Amino acid sequence: MQxxxxxxxxxxxxxxxxxxxxxxxxxxxxxxNFIYPYEKKLEKVAQIFKSHSIALDVTSDINLSSREIxxxxxxxxxxxx
Length: 81
Fold this sequence. Notes:
Elements lengths: L5 H4 L5 E4 L5 E2 L8 E2 L3 H11 L5 E4 L8 H4 L11
Parallel strand pairs: 1-4
Antiparallel strand pairs: 2-3
């Protein structure tokens, strides 16, 4: 996608799926505590598509989701993220 010209990007509506990706252990080896940050992924998407519209498909598949992604579905705070 990042190699497409701006004129070609104007002709399509890319669908970007947001899944948990790789976990980051913020705990220890004996007591792991994994988080799955997605902010860097979204920053990369923003760099690639700049001002072009995209459709963001936020996964609800339990095998591909994480606590951080599930929070996006929360109407009291998730919608504002």
